[in-house]
User: Fold this.
Amino acid sequence: MNIEKLIKELDFKAVRSSGAGGQNVNKVSSKVILSFDLNKSEGLTSEEKILLETKLSSRLTNDNIMTLQCDEDRSQLKNKSIVVKRFLAIIEQGLVIPKIRKSTKIPKSAIKKRLKNKKNTAKIKDFRKKPNLD
Assistant:
């Protein structure tokens, strides 16, 4: 993964933001929408693209384009930096390959201990019963 190439491939669009801000909201386009085309990316290898396509399928459109938006701040520059950080974090999480779980055998001592405890609780419960005087 080449981060510099990925950042160069990003497309940004500034839109008028909603929410608090008064007149500033009506005048300034501070909301930033980031779009990234996974298929056309040169910063990712083909294996990384396949991995991201499967892991981030819920975030991608039918054309494998990821869109993120940010309107947290009144500044367009801050929103742009926030959305880029968010994008890079999502890509890094998507490229993490989880460790394969190795199944382990239960030790014989653990099995013996469990059965011993079961017998002890059974004895305790037996002593609670009324004696049979036949």
Summary: Residues 3-95 form a domain with the Double Stranded RNA Binding Domain fold (CATH 3.30.160.20). The two ends are 81 Å apart (CA to CA). The longest strand covers residues 31-37. The chain has a mean pLDDT of 89.
